[in-house]
């Protein structure tokens, strides 16, 4: 799994702006910020610093001093799911929001400024899967990938892959490629010739209480060891570890129920 995001500066400086359409950030909204920081700090070695005040109680997660994710607090008066949300880069969040609406999606938050770091919107595709749009200013987004503790991949689980892929292709300019898999209803979204995200259609299979949704994969050194830490820290295993084309992966949930996948690359 590779993507089209900008690489970190070799001397540890600010990374280049992400190509529009690139998954560039992931954010989690929770009820208990302190407990969530403790869980992910122990699981991935993250440290935290305050984020933009416009987003309410919010922190940026740092890995070796570089930003990898954001965690905020859910408004107490809104019944929203606790879930990781991927953000896709845009040169103009307002224009992208308009395209989302014109393609049958909805925009529930924004576009709005996040201090001087950028401009964001949060929307959903026609099936209801939630995603974000990020127009960078001072902060391009995730500053490091491909190392343990950093996001590695995002995959959409939905009812039918082709229709969902068409929406994202129209909004973000992707090319589509049927995934090389025994499961026929999979599509890989590509940008400038490189894979950036996956779409998995499950047909009429039940999606439980989640509905269509995005899942973020995080790199780990050893999947089985990471699963042990998840359990010790109060999380749950949702699917047993399995070996696939890209390595060993398992689906887990944190103590508040947010789902994430742990990916150990092939050795």
Automatic annotation (TrEMBL):
Keywords associated with the record: Dioxygenase, Oxidoreductase
Mind telling me what this protein is named?
Answer: Glyoxalase/bleomycin resistance protein/dioxygenase
InterPro entries from the UniProt entry: Anthracycline_SecMetBiosynth, Glyas_Bleomycin-R_OHBP_Dase, Glyoxalase_6, VOC_core
Q: Where is the VOC domain?
A: 22-136, 150-265
Question: Where are the annotated segments for Disordered?
Answer: 1-21
Supply the source organism for this entry.
Answer: Streptomyces caelestis
Molecular function via GO? dioxygenase activity
SUPFAM superfamilies documented for this protein = Glyoxalase/Bleomycin resistance protein/Dihydroxybiphenyl dioxygenase
């Amino acid at each position: 799994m590779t993507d089209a995001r900008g690489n970190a500066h070799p001397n540890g400086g600010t990374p280049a702006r992400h190509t529009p359409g690139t998954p560039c950030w992931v954010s989690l909204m929770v009820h208990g910020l302190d407990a969530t920081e403790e869980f992910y700090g122990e699981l991935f070695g993250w440290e935290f610093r305050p984020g933009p005040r416009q987003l309410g109680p919010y922190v940026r997660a740092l890995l070796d001093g570089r930003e990898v994710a954001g965690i905020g607090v859910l408004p107490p008066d809104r019944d929203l799911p606790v879930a990781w949300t991927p953000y896709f880069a845009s040169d103009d969040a307002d224009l992208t929001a308009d395209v989302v609406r014109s393609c049958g999606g909805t925009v529930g938050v924004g576009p709005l400024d996040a201090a001087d770091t950028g401009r964001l919107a949060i929307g959903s595709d026609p099936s209801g899967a939630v995603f974000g749009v990020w127009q960078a200013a001072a902060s391009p987004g995730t500053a490091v990938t491909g190392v343990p503790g950093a996001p590695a991949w995002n995959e959409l689980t939905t009812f039918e892959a082709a229709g969902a892929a068409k929406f994202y292709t129209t909004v973000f300019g992707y090319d589509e490629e049927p995934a090389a898999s025994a499961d026929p209803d999979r599509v890989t979204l590509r940008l400038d010739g490189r894979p950036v995200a996956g779409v998995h259609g499950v047909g009429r299979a039940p999606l439980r209480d989640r509905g269509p949704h995005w899942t973020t994969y995080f790199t780990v050194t050893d999947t089985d060891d990471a699963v042990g830490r998840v359990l010790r820290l109060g999380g749950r295993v949702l699917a047993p570890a399995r070996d696939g084309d890209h390595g060993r992966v398992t689906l887990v949930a944190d103590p508040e129920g947010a789902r994430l996948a742990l990916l150990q690359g092939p050795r």
